[in-house]
Amino acid sequence: MPEQVVGLVDLRVYPNPFSERLNIRFISTSNAHAIVDLYNINGNLIERVFDGNVVKGQIFNAEYKPKNIVSQIIIYRLTIDNKIHMGKLIYRETE
Length: 95
Known about the structure:
The protein is mostly beta strands. It has no helices and eight strands. Strand 2 and strand 3 form a beta hairpin. It is elongated and about 40 Å long.
C-alpha cells in the first residue's frame, strides 16, 4: 500500500489484503497519546494493538497477528489527540 499522509499523521497500514500479519506504522507531528484499534464490520472491537504516548517525529510500529477470526473486512482506527484516521482492510484466512 503506498504511503499516505492523513491530516497531521504519516500513516502506513500494510499489506492489504493480509492473512498472517498486519503492520501499522505511523509518525505523529506532535507529542501525543495514540490508540490503534481494529474493528469488525459490525463495529465490535477485535483488538487494541497500540495504546501509548508517542513522540513527535518518531516512527511507531504496531503489529497484529489474527487469532480465531474468519475472513472479513476489518476497520482500523488510529486516534491521536482526538483526531481520528480510519480505513478498511481485508483479512483472508490461510488454508
